[in-house]
Structures are given as C-alpha cells and as structure tokens.
Amino acid sequence: MHQPPTIISARWIIPVEPAGLVHEDHALVIRDGRILAILPTATALRDYPAATHIDRPGHVLMPGLVNAHTHAAMTLFRGLADDMPLETWLNGHIWPAEARWVTPDFVRDGADLALLEMLLGGTTTCGDMYFFPDVTARAVADSGLRAAIGMIVLEFPTVWARSADEYLSKGLAVRDQFKGHPRVSTMFAPHAPYTVADRTFEQIRVLADELEAPIQMHVLETAAEIPDSLAQYRRRPLQRLDALGIVTPLLAAVHMTQIESEDIELLAGRGAHVVHCPESNLKLASGHCPVARLDAAGISIAIGTDGAASNNDLDMFGEMRTAALLAKGVAGRADVLPASTVLRMATLNGAHALGLGDRVGSLVPGKEADLVCVDLARPATQPVHCPISQVVYAASREQVTDVWVAGQHLLREGRALLADSDAILGRAAAWGAKLGSRNG
After folding, report:
1. What is the DSSP track for 268-315?
2. Closest CA to 340 of 393, 379, 299, 297
C-alpha cells in the first residue's frame, strides 16, 4: 500500500540530468521514498490534493551531494598534524596516532561526528575507507544517510586485521552483514598500489568481478610512487594495476595528481573513474590533478573531501568551488569546468563512482529521493542570475536548510531530526581532550 505523497516546491529545481537544466517554480513529488514526478507547482498541487506540501520559496532544490572519498572517523584527528608534507604527515603522525588510538569506540564517535557534519552541509552519500568498517556501516545505518563502505586491504597488520587474507575475509563479512541494506553498500578499498601486493590485487579483481563491486583506491597521489613502482615492478602504478586487471569501469582512482598522457588514455579506454580531492591535495602539496584534461578525454570525475585530518573539513560546497577555480588556474582557461559540470561531479558522477548512479545523484523519476534545499535568499547569493552558478561559486553549506534521504526528512529548516547533535559533540570534545592531553 502506497504512502501519501509529499510535494516539495521550490523557486528553482536543478535535476542535474539533463545538464544545465533548471526548472523554475516547479515541485518534486515523492512517494514511498522515490521521486514520482517533477511538475509545475500548480499542477502538482492540483494532481495530488492529498499530498503533504513543503514550500521553500527562496530555495534551490537539488540532488544531495556525494562525497565520493573520505575517512569519516578521522574527524577526531582534525587539526592533529597540520602544515607538513604528506609522507611526514602520514608516517610520522597519522599512522602512529591510529595505532595508538583507533578502536571501535573511536571509529563510532568519529563517524557520528562526520555524518552529522555532512548532513548539515547537504551531503547525503559518502564513500568511506577506514578501519572497523562494520562500525562505520552501523553508524551510517543509524544516521539515515547513505554510504558505500570500503572493505580496506593492506599487506601489513593494523588494529583491524593482520594480513591481506584477513582484511579480505573480514571485509566480506561486513558485506554479508549489510547485504540488502537499503542505504549501506560496500566496495573493495585496497589502500594504494604501494601497500598491496600483486597476489592480493588478483584476488580483489576476481571478487570484484564476481560481486560486481566497485574498487576504490589511492592512486598516483605522490611523486614518490612512480620511481618506486618502476624500480620494483618496472611499470608505472596505473600500468601495473591495468596488467593485473584492476583498471575497469569498477575502479575509482582517488587523487591522481601525478598523471601523464598515457594514464589519461588508459583511464579513458577502460572507463575507469577518478575521484578528485582538490583541497586535501592542495593542503598536503601533493600536486594538481589535471581535471580539465580528464574531462576533455571523457573520463567521469567525482569529488571527495578526503579525511578531516588532511582537509580539514567535509564541506562539499567548498570542495566544488575549489575544484572549479583550481581547474581553471591549472589549465590557464576560464571556460574549463563550468558550474554545471562541477555540480554533476559532486552529485551524479560521485554516485556512479560508488556504484550507485542508477539509484541517486540526479532528480529523475524512479530514483530514490536524496535531496537538499539551499536557501539562495541570503545576501551572499543575491541576486540570482544563474542558480547553478550560485550553488557552485557563491553558496555555503550554512545555507542548506533541508535534507531528505530516500524520502526521509533528516534535516528540517536547519535542525537535525534523527541525530543527537549534543551527544555527538560531547563525545567528540571528550576525544579532543584525551588526544590533546596525551599528545602534548
């Protein structure tokens, strides 16, 4: 039996598909958690007289943002080790801190904080890669948000597993635990080419093909990866992965700051995705992903924040603006990566990279109703000549008023309806005091 529909009317609706389209004075009709129709508001009210009507007259209604790559629990390391090169940051600070502090409780409290931050900022879906993925998956399930949870794989022992085989076994157990969950999916998440062996990649390839599961991995993030790979494998990292059968439409290669023309041709030819993390790359001075060249080659590019330990926020509005401006600066052309392309990167392309593009990422009848309302009637976004440009270049996450996931209203007029914000912030503050006192 169908639930009564809900009508959400807005000054503008940006469906993302088709590109650049903006509906004015339209309404979105939701029933049973899915998008039923997009109609002129007067028509929707006439055709669905029994529907609940939510009116947002100065707002843009658009798909929820998709943070295609993050490490949610690392919110508790926010600001712990800033202003240093990636290798120093990772080897000298983050990995030792993880070995000392990361437990299931740490992951749950950090994930809860990240999910609350993302909810308030209009992110409805994330791709997460971290230890204790079962704990993060449960946090996502409880939050009402959506996520693709990474089944992480490394060759060395950590708090989560001791060997590559154990990582895979435990990851597959998480997949089985959440199989069929309406908002939690899984993906293989080998850390990077330099931390995973050929034999393990071969196992992942077979499993990913069999399960039709995405693969997400840090690739070509630093310059040092290339000479190391050439010395050990006599191939560049991406070419080695391709020889192992990993570079396919299931792959989402994260960062990609050290790209050559041959890498672009390979990615385009194989139909692989790239996840661009512009602010993390800038902060760690890892290099610049040549996004305009990737886009010109027809490669699907998503956007991620990376973890809050290297960003230091999970703000997809800031990430969109940075991605657009950085691409223009790197290419030396103001016309590359227009606002509509960047918005697609932060929504539909991210959904595709996580294997969810047929379900979310655009406002199309039949898709799940993952939506956000952004109030453009604020001084910083007036007047409105082009709503898409305002969203990408001028709006902030503080202008997000409402969020729905699968039709469930999770944020209403700026107030979280499901999350216990005070309790989450209290636990985060306790961790901050603990880590601060122990780390000097």
Report:
1. HHHT-EEEE-HHHHHHTT-----HHHHHHTT-EEEE----TTSSS---
2. 393
- What does DSSP assign to residue 407? T
CA-to-CA distance for 250 and 274, rounded, in angstroms?
11
β-strands 371-375, 400-405 pairing:
antiparallel
Tokens of 184: 């939690």
Task: Find where tokens 């006439």 sit.
Answer: 46
In contact, 61 and 13? CB cutoff 8 Å: yes
Q: Is 378 helix (H, G, I), strand (E, B) or coil?
A: coil
8 Å CB contact between 268 and 297 = yes
Q: Find out whether 126 and 307 touch, Cβ atoms under 8 Å.
A: no
CA 317 to CA 66: how far, in whole Å? 11
Burial 101-137 (b: 16+ CB within 10 A, else e): bbebebbbbbbbbbbbbbbbbbbbbbbbbbbbbbbbb
In angstroms, what CA-CA distances link 70 with 32, 127, 295? Answer: 30, 6, 22
Q: Give the strand pairing for 371-375 and 52-63.
A: antiparallel
Print pLDDT tens along the chain (440 aa): 678 999 999 999 999 999 999 999 999 999 999 999 999 999 999 999 999 999 999 999 999 999 999 999 999 999 998 998 878 888 898 989 999 999 999 999 999 999 999 999 999 999 999 999 999 999 999 999 999 999 999 999 999 999 999 999 999 999 999 999 999 999 999 999 999 999 999 999 999 999 999 999 999 999 999 999 999 999 999 999 999 999 999 999 999 999 999 999 999 999 999 999 999 999 999 899 999 999 999 999 999 999 999 999 999 999 999 999 999 999 999 999 999 999 999 999 999 999 999 999 999 999 999 999 999 999 999 999 999 999 999 999 999 999 999 999 999 999 999 999 999 999 999 999 999 854 44
State how far the Cα of 306 lies from the Cα of 316, in Å rounded to an integer: 11
Q: Which tokens hold the place of 327?
A: 């691409």
Nearest to 283 by CA among 86, 71, 72: 86
- From 195, 239, 234, 240, select the one nearest 218 (Cα to Cα): 195
Please compute, for residue 211, the number of CA atoms within 13 A of its CA located in the half-sphere on the CB side.
Answer: 18
Token pair listed for 305: 């924040």
